[in-house]
Automatic annotation (TrEMBL):
<dbReference type="InterPro" id="IPR018246">
    <property type="entry name" value="AP_endonuc_F2_Zn_BS"/>
</dbReference>
<dbReference type="Pfam" id="PF01261">
    <property type="entry name" value="AP_endonuc_2"/>
</dbReference>
<dbReference type="InterPro" id="IPR001719">
    <property type="entry name" value="AP_endonuc_2"/>
</dbReference>
<keyword id="KW-0479">Metal-binding</keyword>
<dbReference type="InterPro" id="IPR036237">
    <property type="entry name" value="Xyl_isomerase-like_sf"/>
</dbReference>
<dbReference type="InterPro" id="IPR013022">
    <property type="entry name" value="Xyl_isomerase-like_TIM-brl"/>
</dbReference>
<keyword id="KW-0227">DNA damage</keyword>
<keyword id="KW-0862">Zinc</keyword>
<comment type="similarity">
    <text>Belongs to the AP endonuclease 2 family.</text>
</comment>
<dbReference type="GO" id="GO:0003677">
    <property type="term" value="F:DNA binding"/>
</dbReference>
<dbReference type="GO" id="GO:0003906">
    <property type="term" value="F:DNA-(apurinic or apyrimidinic site) endonuclease activity"/>
</dbReference>
<protein>
    <submittedName>
        <fullName>Putative endonuclease 4</fullName>
    </submittedName>
</protein>
<dbReference type="GO" id="GO:0008081">
    <property type="term" value="F:phosphoric diester hydrolase activity"/>
</dbReference>
<dbReference type="GO" id="GO:0006284">
    <property type="term" value="P:base-excision repair"/>
</dbReference>
<feature type="domain" description="Xylose isomerase-like TIM barrel">
    <location>
        <begin position="22"/>
        <end position="286"/>
    </location>
</feature>
<keyword id="KW-0378">Hydrolase</keyword>
<keyword id="KW-0255">Endonuclease</keyword>
Length: 289
């Protein structure tokens, strides 16, 4: 089973690997740049070499990159739309270059791709927003060749945020010409408050994921409990076992046979400090037994 957490790359991108090893996890999610700053310059070669050198002595097997939070591919505003695309270009380029070095060094590590929040309706109507997101994804994939994927993240559907349903996520991918490198990251908290009942009808939720999205295109699952109630469309994560989902539901998600090859990544409030993060990861491992 692949168990992980979002880790910090503060002080150098290789520190994300060290932090993952420190907590004894085999999967990490990271951002190679500041989360609330536009990314417009590619990561330097020397940083990437140092990152892969650190991987050589690591137990990390799966790495997910999370795009900056400023990205909104549904924007009509040309400058903001372009900045959002360029942030994904920088991260996808990073994923490709790291992946090439991993292969060159014969390391047993997989870069899962770059996940991102698709955006929210601002200036455009619903249909045009969907089309704009698909166009943006295609533009990025054409700009950066290779084998790495862009992964659309499911959202809680707060306000005008796009990506609240599996059919909506599928529509974004279906609108792409380069859909062979487009997949998904699902968030248990987001999907629960968006109307997918993990507690009362998990079988139906899992079945719909397979039929609508395809398990092979779901590259990671953000494993978060929820502070907010079912179908509330409110994005508020809770620590495992402390929210509406609870330990039993989280454990059942971890043990679904359909998800056996999909990494589970924590994004819970406990990750904000080292002491609470250690306890949260131990709790995750207990639930996964």
């Amino acid at each position: 089973m692949y168990l992980g957490a979002h880790v910090s790359s503060s002080g150098g991108i290789e520190n994300a690997i060290k932090e993952g090893d420190r907590y004894g996890i085999n999967s990490i999610q990271m951002m190679p740049t500041a989360p609330m700053r536009w990314a417009t310059k590619n990561i330097p070669d020397e940083d990437i070499k140092r990152f892969v050198e650190t991987l050589k002595g690591s137990g990390i097997k799966k790495i997910l990159l999370h795009g900056i939070y400023l990205t909104n591919l549904a924007r009509e505003d040309k400058q903001l739309f372009h900045l959002g695309k360029m942030g994904l270009v920088v991260y996808l380029d990073f994923a490709n270059r790291v992946g090439q070095l991993i292969k060159k060094n014969s390391l047993d590590v997989e870069i899962l791709g770059v996940c991102f929040h698709p955006g929210s309706q601002k200036e455009l109507n619903y249909e045009d927003s969907l089309e704009r997101i698909s166009y943006g994804i295609d533009w990025v994939l054409k700009e950066v060749g290779g084998t790495q994927w862009l992964l659309i993240e499911s959202t809680a559907g707060t306000g005008t945020n796009m990506g609240r349903s599996f059919t909506e996520l599928k529509a974004m991918r279906d609108g792409c010409k380069e859909k062979g490198r487009v997949g998904y990251v699902l968030d248990t908290q987001h999907t629960y408050v968006a109307g997918y009942d993990w507690i009362a009808d998990m079988d139906s939720v899992v079945e719909e994921i397979g039929e609508t999205l395809g398990y092979n295109r779901v590259k990671a699952i953000h494993l978060n409990d929820s502070m907010m109630s079912f179908a509330s469309n409110k994005d508020r994560h809770a620590n495992l076992g402390e929210g509406k989902l609870g330990d039993e539901t989280v454990s059942n998600i971890l043990h679904r046979k359909e998800f056996k090859d999909i990494p589970f990544i924590l994004e819970t409030p406990a990750l904000k400090s080292s002491s609470t993060m250690e306890k949260e990861i131990l709790h995750l491992k207990e639930l996964a037994k």
